[in-house]
Write a structure and sequence with these properties.
Layout lengths: L1 E6 L6 H12 L4 E8 L2 H9 L5 H5 L5 E7 L4 H22 L9 H7 L5 E4 L3 H13 L3 E4 L6 H14 L3 E2 L5 E4 L2 E4 L9 E5 L3 H12 L4 E6 L12 H12 L5 E6 L4 H12 L5 E5 L6 E3 L2 E3 L3 H13 L23 E6 L2 H14 L12 E5 L2 E5 L3 H4 L10 H12 L3 E9 L8 H18 L5 E7 L8 H10 L3 E3 L2 H11 L10 E3 L13 H8 L4 E4 L2 H9 L4 E4 L9 H12 L3 H14 L2 E8 H4 L10 E4 L11 H14 L5 H9 L4 E4 L5 E2 L11 E7 L4 E6 L15 H24 L4 E2 H10 L9 H16 L6 H13 L4 H17 L7 E7 L2 E6 L7 E4 L4 E4 L12 E2 L3 H5 L10 H4 L7 H11 L3 E10 L5 E7 L1 H7 L5 E6 L7 E7 L3 H14 L5
């Protein structure tokens, strides 16, 4: 049976999950298992493995998914225990490493290291090109370890890098050394005067380690990726690096290594190298050059290239390596024995295939099979690092499983005389690959002996004596196990060929005069020269181990704990890249937030809604405003419909509940969103013509906004209650509370300035959505003297008003809402950009607006709040989220300023102070700046969040947190708790897609 566990929002690196999958595969009761992030590409891998489930297909790229084929459901518990144990161990190991705190975004990475000049990228290929593009835009060269990048993307990136004076090394670039610092799967090599430019990985590793063991060194070894020399790419990085190496005075000899280039690229490179001012050694693996040129040498093998380079540095010939082996038991050619060769990387495998083919006198190219470098008369050479073997599985440098499987199959073949393999030491490789293979080797030797056959195991160890695995230790372990160990790959291949009774001829090459071909030479960009002359300053995007290594070598490095931006949606990522690079958006966003900072909201009056909202004159006055984006009455949740019933009764349009519901259901009432009338309303937001509303004027924009007054808690209209008590309270607020407050406000010469009041209350512990105690008391402090002086008002009414204000801790919330509306409406007037200017919900949909799209709503299904409940209630009783009060978060308070009110964090279910701090810090990830007008003492007197940027929300997958009350899903029962809620991210996704389309871009 297939069982699935989805861990939402738990991003883990692919290599970690591959290793975890291997461990889980050995558990009893597990027939088959795969652990991966649920990216589209990985879902295909699950499908091919027969492990597709509905839960998997519903998961997102940021979700970790375990799919297991088990006979007993109880086995799943053991699987998940192992998962937790493994991931905890990984986390603990990472904590033990030295280094600075990691970051989770480009912005944070660049803030930590503004002078970074290299991005090292080791993330899934579907996203690697997009992140590389971002790196180039930020002025960083790129080392792209990631594979599965399209050749079209590679060309575009390299052309862009060239135009900016930068470089893209890769994709599929396994190895690099920059100023002696090892990047990715690299050995610990001494610095020296030999420069290397190579295609990818193991070829550079073989060259550099031979050079090191011969006593010389390499300061810069630049990987360019296996496709740079294809016609489609044109050798862009190769040509730029040749220019840079020639300009580098520390380079005395240059080595070029790759598969044979496309002819037009080969001609271009050869022409440039013929003009190179220093000795050059070229090696195009698979070719058999017949001569050298003066200071322009053409090698046949990696070993020859390394010895030529060392000899040129020293001015003397370097002798060949030898192996001490008894050849008396080797087979003869007529025995018909074969070689089975299993390699970690393509260049060494390619070299082995070339030498074996030469030994077999094969003139016709062997059949091309994915992953196989050679299939010839029973002889095989396999590149186990090929995508055919590594897709969804660990690389053979770090996991022995596939090689063990291959060796077992090889020994089962009676024709096999030799099993040939490489052991790669260095950073990124297995800690003891030799030790992990030896038990299998011994077992297979015994198996062959029992069958009366001799199988020679021959290995080359690629490494230096500074590699942490220990070169001599690996060699000695293998020798003690009966393995013939050779100093380099050529010698290992030659020994294997001898072992089956054959040989190959390595040509003796004459040195001819160099033919210099006219070509254009370019001065390397200063940025490239700097890259090769200083230790790189690195932003490491992906595998943490890469960051740990470069840090050991004294590099500045920031670890970017990458997760797929925009939920892994490539179209959205491309949209974000367009919007990030579109000229002027940052300035437009700054204009919006500047208007927020400059705003001067003033509470001017309290009047009946119909006196200031002209829309109430429509439909013969039978108009009701509601919270959120537009919604039909039939789609309103029950509490909002109940609030509508209460409004109809309040307005005396009907005498009974039945009559009121009939009017509502028959369409006799016109519904308009509060936001369409310069108004906002809490929870249901229901506002009718004769309800009392506050009038807030933003004097800098000369615009006004309106909001009903807070009714207190318990059975109140905004939570769906509509009985006689509720209606009578509303009428008292209309007839007494509103007129008295209106009179008091009008008596103030310039009204009541709101900004000073907010600044005071935030310092006293309010966040202005769930907690308004301080602001409500400060408001009472301003009103009470004015009210007591109203001699034309009865003493009872004055007392009742002051008592109501004193008892209603949340009274200021509605003033804050009107303030937020007035400020944000002015901020979007005449502006543009991606700043969110409104957030609201109607129990059916959540809606947002952004500055660049005016009045247009972008909606998604509303969520249900999570939080704490009053006694007797739980989440099953909760109504989906309602209300315009999220305008406070748009302004920067409420949940965005959770840290300002640590006393309320437990009530809204956020935990304690540390959780409040974490929440507000996380909210800073999605805003443009801080508002200096309102500083928070508990946040080191930093300003509140300012300007939610829809781009950042989508990029980071962090939605604004909103503090809110929780209504019972049944009308009439009122508030049952309080908590937090998040908008659906699709609102923000729709907004940025629409805005990009407006600017002319469509992914």
């Amino acid at each position: 049976m297939l069982k699935t566990v989805v861990k939402k929002g738990s991003y883990q690196d692919s290599v970690v999950l591959m290793l975890l999958t291997n461990e889980l595969s050995s558990l009893d009761g597990v027939n088959k298992i795969q652990v991966m992030m649920a990216t589209p590409a990985n879902k295909d891998i699950f499908k091919e493995s027969g492990l597709t489930t509905d839960e998997l297909m519903d998961a997102t790229a940021n979700d970790m998914v375990v799919v297991a084929d088990v006979n007993d459901e109880a086995v799943l518990d053991a699987v998940m225990d192992k998962v937790e144990e493994f991931l905890k161990k990984q986390s603990t190991a990472a904590e033990g490493k030295k280094g600075s705190e990691s970051v989770k975004s480009w912005d944070a990475a660049l803030k930590k290291m503004s002078n970074a000049n290299l991005a090292v990228i080791s993330i899934p290929g579907a996203y690697a090109a997009l992140e590389a593009d971002r790196a180039l835009d930020e002025g960083l060269s790129v080392f792209m370890f990631s594979d599965n990048v399209t050749i079209e993307d590679e060309k575009a990136l390299k052309e862009k890098a060239h135009s900016k004076g930068l470089a893209v090394m890769g994709p599929d670039c396994g190895t690099g050394i920059i100023q002696g610092v090892p990047i990715a799967f690299t050995n610990n090599v001494a610095k020296g005067s030999i420069g290397i430019i190579g295609a990818s990985g193991t070829g550079i590793q073989e060259l550099t380690t031979i050079i090191d063991r011969l006593g010389e060194g390499v300061t810069n070894a630049i990987g360019i990726g296996g496709r740079d020399l294809k016609a489609e790419v044109g050798g862009i990085t190769m040509m730029d690096m040749i220019d840079a190496m020639e300009d580098d005075d520390t380079v005395k000899v240059l080595v070029i290594v790759s598969k044979p280039p496309a002819k037009e690229v080969r001609d271009k490179i050869s022409a440039r190298l013929s003009n190179f001012s220093k000795p050059v050694v070229t090696l195009f693996v698979g070719e058999k050059p017949e001569y050298h040129e003066e200071n322009f040498y053409h090698a046949y093998t990696l070993d020859e290239a390394a010895r030529l380079a060392v000899g040129l540095v020293r001015g003397t010939k370097v002798p060949e390596a030898t192996v001490d082996v008894d050849e008396s038991e080797f087979y003869k050619a007529e025995d018909g024995k074969t070689i089975k060769a299993y390699y970690s990387g393509g260049t060494l495998a390619n070299e082995a295939a070339m030498l074996i083919k030469d030994a077999m006198n094969c003139k016709v190219p062997p059949e091309d099979v994915e992953g196989y470098m050679l299939q010839l008369d029973g002889n095989v050479v396999v590149d186990l690092g090929d995508d055919a073997y590594t897709q969804g599985k660990p690389h053979p440098m770090i996991d022995p499983a596939k090689r063990i499987e291959c060796m077992q199959e090889a020994v089962d073949d009676p024709s096999t005389g030799v099993v040939l393999l490489d052991i790669m030491l260095g950073y990124g490789s297995h800690a003891d690959m030799a030790g992990s293979l030896i038990p299998t080797i011994k077992e297979l030797q015994a198996k062959a002996d029992a069958a009366g056959r001799k199988v020679f195991f021959i290995a080359t160890v690629c490494g230096t004596r500074r590699d942490y695995q220990g070169y001599d230790e690996a060699v000695n372990k293998l020798k003690e196990a009966g393995v013939i160990v050779c100093e380099n790959n050529k010698l290992a291949c030659q020994t294997a060929i001898h072992a089956i009774g054959r040989d190959f001829q390595e040509p003796e090459k004459e040195i001819r005069a160099k033919e210099v071909v006219a070509c254009e030479k370019h001065t390397p960009a200063e940025t490239l020269k700097e890259l090769l002359s200083e230790k790189p300053r690195i932003i490491n995007i992906g595998l943490k181990s890469f960051a740990e290594v470069v840090e050991e070598f004294g590099c500045e490095v920031v670890q970017y704990d990458w997760a797929p931006p925009a939920g892994g949606n490539v179209k959205l990522i491309k949209t974000l890249n367009f919007l990030r690079n579109y000229e002027g958006i940052e300035e437009k966003n700054r204009e919006v937030i500047a208007k927020v900072v400059a705003s001067q909201p003033v509470l001017k009056d309290n009047v009946r809604a119909k006196e200031v909202i002209p829309e109430f004159a429509e439909n013969n006055g039978k108009v009701i405003l509601h919270a959120g984006p537009p919604v039909d009455y039939k789609n309103m949740p029950d509490p909002m419909q109940g609030s509508c019933v209460g409004a109809v009764m309040f307005e005396e349009w009907a005498e009974t509940e039945e009559e009121a519901r009939k009017m509502l259901e028959n369409g006799e009432i016109k519904f308009i969103p509060c936001h369409h009338c310069n108004a906002v309303g809490p929870m249901g937001g229901i506002t009718s013509p004769n309800m009392a509303v506050f009038v807030v004027e933003n004097e800098t924009g000369a615009n006004r906004a309106y909001c009903t007054m807070n009714e207190g808690i318990g059975k109140v209209l905004r939570f769906g209650a509509y009985d006689e008590e509720v209606v009578n309270r509303l009428r008292w607020m209309r007839d007494v509370l509103g007129p008295i407050l209106g009179k008091a406000l009008r008596s103030m010469e310039n009204g009541l300035a709101i900004n000073p009041l907010i600044a005071k209350a935030i310092a006293m512990g309010d966040e202005f959505h769930q907690r308004n105690i301080a602001a409500s008391l400060v408001f009472l402090k301003e009103m009470a003297p004015l009210i007591t002086e109203m001699k034309d008002i009865s003493e009872k009414d004055r007392y009742d008003v002051i008592k109501f204000l004193a008892d209603t801790d949340q009274f200021f919330l509605n003033i804050m809402m009107a303030t937020g509306k007035a400020v944000m409406d002015d901020a979007r007037k005449g502006t543009d950009g991606t700043i969110v200017t409104a957030m609201c919900r109607n129990g059916y949909e959540f809606g947002i607006r952004i500055a660049g799209m005016g009045d247009e709503w972008f909606t998604g299904p509303v969520n249900t709040p999570q939080g704490l409940y009053f006694t007797g209630y739980d989440a099953d009783d909760a109504c989906p989220d309602m209300g315009d009060s999220a305008i406070t978060e748009t302004f920067g308070v409420g949940g965005m300023a959770m840290i300002a009110a640590p006393a309320v964090t437990r009530f809204v279910g956020a935990g304690g102070y540390e959780d409040a701090l974490r929440t507000s810090n996380e909210m800073m990830e999605i805003v443009t700046d801080r508002n200096p007008n309102f500083t928070v003492p508990t946040w080191n007197f930093q300003g509140i969040c300012l300007g939610i940027d829809a781009r950042l929300v989508v990029e980071k997958g962090i939605t604004p947190v909103i503090n809110t009350g929780i209504a019972n899903k049944v009308a009439g029962k009122g508030q049952i708790g309080a908590g937090t809620v998040h908008p659906p991210i699709e609102c923000f996704e729709k907004a940025i897609v629409a805005y990009a389309k407006k600017l002319g871009f469509e992914a």
